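User: Round two. Same drill as before: sequence, then structure, for each protein.

Assistant: Same drill it is. First protein:
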Amino acid sequence: MAKKNKKPAATEDAITVSRAADIPVTDDVSAVDPDAGQEVPSAAAEDTAAAEMTADTQAAEDSDTDGLRRTQDAGECGNVFLASLEHATADDFAAEPPKSKKSIGEIASNAARILVFWAAVAVFLLSGYHIVYKLYAYRQAEDIYSGVADTIINATTNRREDLIATALKNDRLQALVPVNGTREDSGFVDDPQDTVVYNELFEMMKRQLALLRNTSEDLVGWIIMEGDTEINYPMVQYTDNDYYLHYAYDGTYNPAGSIFLDYRNEVALSSNLHTIIYGHNMESGSPMFANLLRFHEDGFWENNRYISVYTADALYKYEVFSAYESPATNLRDPAFSWRMNFNQSITEYTTWIEAIRAKSDFKTDIPIDVSDRILTLSTCMNINENRYVVHCVLVEVVQ
């Protein structure tokens, strides 16, 4: 019975081997469905398909990324704002906060700040304009006065040198004629011929002043101070003491003004008991009377003591005897520096002379009596309301 069972088993093994031999061999490793007769995908095939799907997905994502990058590039090259809107969400936008109403105080405060700002701008511009204008005016004054001095004085000076050289050659002078000084210091001998040079120069100056009067009808003379003061100017006179504070001698407006004679004085200076001549203290441009303040310096008086004033009728020569700072407000002070009315009193006049001599920044022993005529040069201090005055005594008149 055992043998009968072994034979059928061998037959089944043979059948299995025979079927296996009938299965076709292919490059694609797969199984065959025994029921349907169809091929079943193997694990390797499934891995291959999965890999292909992953590659497709990655390609799609890369395509989206490239598209976004191109969009961003386009935004950067074009309009960044519009490009950013493509990816903005509703959360990216916030509602505009409500505007709060400003109070009247805030409005007034803002208006005040704006007003102050523009006021400061206006002040700055106006100040700049005044500075530039003053610099221009000072330069203009320098040109005006240096030009007329060159025309009038230099011509006279050159002529003077020629005349003196001729006189010396003819042995008619013992010494050169000084520009200023008393008759006793002039260096002339008693021979009338010795006065030829002196008189001719004076006549020439009068002719020059007559020509200059065609430029200014208010011209009354010319003032020169020998030394370092640079005082060498035409002199004018008006109906008040204000006009020529702001106008040059030729009538052009200029803050340097002019050297001018007090309107109360006579042009014939020897007829005035007290003559006053005014001039500005200029810090730049033409100095006018600025250098008068140097009389408070030690030794300045010795080299700057003589003044010549030319008019149409005479040459008046003065010598400085006093200089000081003085207030210009105490009109009732008997020693008031600009006093003109002495009530015909010899006592008041002599008292006044002694008072102004005593105020001086330097001391002199120049004799002065009641018959003398006084000239005062007056200028401003600039640092206060006071004035600086220089008093002189008339020592010679040449007509």
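Second protein:
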Amino acid sequence: MEIPLFWTARFFRVVLGLLPLCMGWSAGQNVEVAPSISRQDRLRLWELYVSRNIRPSNEMPERKDMVRSYVERGNEWLQKDRLDLAAADFAIAIELDPKCAEAYHNRGIAHAAGGDRDAAIADFTKAIAIRSDVSQPYLGRGLLRLGKGDFDGAIMDFEASIAIVPKLRQSLCSQLAQAYFNRAVDRQSSGDREAAFRDYSAAIGAGTGSSKHCVESGIRNFLAAAYNNRGNLWTDQGMFEEAVADFSRALELNASLPEAYQNRAAVRARKGDMDGAIADSSRAIQVEPQLAAAYQTRGGALYAKGDLEGALSDFNRAIQLQPRSPGAYVNRGIIRLVQGNHGDGLKDLDYALELNPRLGPAVDTLLRTTRLPKEHKAIIELWSKRRSGGSGR
């Protein structure tokens, strides 16, 4: 899930601020005289400045004053969304003073507002190398890294900016939650569940621990997804109470999240709360009629309560939605066997094993523990023969 960045100079002016207009970046503080600029080059740059200035001066100032003039005019161009002219003025300021972090930072804003993320990141990185004690370059680079999917880099930059200006944590709650959430998804996909759990918790903390405003803003869906996904990790650990609490919190934040209803239904079914499972899976289906897992969960709960026809209907629908879901065929096959429909029941079991041969032991156990008609043993023997000989759907 990605919150798009706003690629306009106006966004960067509002969010980052033009240096030195905020957070104490004083004008000229970082300017150092470098002897590499010749008088001829200095004169060339001054003449260029005079030719573009509506109020030119006949006297060539000191170089640090020229740097300040180019930076200030670049800021004016940036405020007018004249990004090319702004970048050009910042480039001249950098030529005059290669250690002008302010010029690098503000040129980075111009590049970012123009859509050149890589150039912007390079400029923010240069500004950080010169002035690591200022928050704005970290913040700008973090936003760009977030947009590029570099969640490690984004988190590092956001935390660095907060370390410099702690009050930024409240303003960055949305971006931090997004970065931690997306990194958690990546880590969970790669199998690192412990790291994913930590990141989901960090996303929740970023979104809820700093300000009530965060929860009331546009990140509610991110937080709901984080609670839902962390709930699945709790479920994997057998921590059902914690899982239900997370799924419930997800639904408080987003009452239209079908996955959270389905996940809570599945946990309730495992705990033996079939009525709760039916209620939650029915709500999930109401919100998202194409959610096959919800039909499977409700079908299992209905079967446990003795409603074979209702369960069979749900498993039929689950198979329609996901025709290659082996679990649905196993469940439908068992119901058909219980109803005495041995032919179709065994065909369902055969096809489930064709889709996933590793289900064999589980199916064996189901057949031996399910209450079947008198032909119980004969059915198992017949199925075993069909299974070893191989059979299609």
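The chain has four domains: 1-166, 187-255, 261-323, 329-393.

User: Perfect.
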